[in-house]
Here is the input.
Amino acid sequence: MVKSVRLSPIGYWLFTLTLLLPSAPFALADDQVAVTVQRPWMRAVPNVMDSTAVYMVLVNSGSAPAQLVGASTAIADSVAPMITTKEGEGLKQVVGMKGVDALEIPAHGTLVLEPNGNHLMVMGLKEHPKEGAQVDFTIKLEPGDHEIHLKIPVQKKPVK
Amino acid sequence: MSVVSPKTTSVPSPPAKRPFFDWRVWTVAIVLLVAVGLAVLFGVKQNAQQGFFGMRLFPLKTAYDFKLHGPNDVEVRLDQFQGKAVLFLFGFTHCANICPTSLTNLTEVYQALTPEERKQVQVVFISVDPNRDTPQTLEEYVTSFDPSFIGLTGSKPVIDQTVLAYGGSYEMVAGPTNQPNDYSVNHSAYTYLVNPSGKLELLYGNEKLAEVPRMVSDIRAVLREPRS
Here is the structure.
């Protein structure tokens, strides 16, 4: 049993990196993804909201593109990758969001999930973790049906 | 292939040593310096003329006096806030990305003002989703950002009229499950600033709201304007 511990940002980083270590020797194989996660956070939302969003930066150090195909957490019914859409011009422009099957992390590139942009929408919240809490969160990547387990801090504002 | 080159008698002279005070280098440097200087001066002047970070409307026109419903179903009109700068935006509480981002940014802007200034500023969130957002849920929602924020909504025709009056737009988009309550709303994401005289003065696209110091300086400028 692993005791849940509160980690400083650096500790958190090291912890995340440790999780990725076992996959490192296979990182060059075609069906493996060489993706690391930076600055993940979940937006703290009031109890009246039934959804929230998770943001992070995914860094792909591999020579093949990887896909973020989904995620899961015990505190919500489902999580889906979303893009922000803009239609129309000027004042008539409407901004919305749209579910997508996958978000690509280009080879030797990054995928930025950030407020107002691409994000992971967490739907059907069963709990409303408060600012400062940590949430277990698993992201799913392709190819290789790869999973990365994260502990994500809950915050009102982005990780600086 | 071999080409016999004519033999030249002159020995190539070593490249002339360029003196430190080469006039060509100095000309280029001075021209660049003057250009940069002019650009900076002109830029500063431009900025001083435009002054505002938001998109300023001209001529200023009286803002449409919306009549919506707030906490406890009480009717709230825009005109009630005369004397205050009102920042309002359209959205819905099931919005997980854009609306909370805008409101978080507006909270930072609001809280960066002095207590005296805050008394003259009202942030209003207008839900375009009265089907799911009651005045009560809206109150709980907006006050979680700042206790002074007000959430308003109304019947669909009243909301439509309000959105139209501000040149905005919104549309419901069905979600993947086909359940009647599974839908998202694509909506105008501008924040409108109505000045203390009730004139619609500035517009901000949702991404601008993150520029807290510039937003604060706009609001201060609006509060300092002579009232009409």
Summary: Chain A has one domain: 9-154. Chain A is about 10% helix and 50% strand. Chain A touches chain B at residues 43, 45-53, 82, 84-85, 87-88, 90-99, 115-116, 119, 121-123, 156-157 (CB under 8 Å).
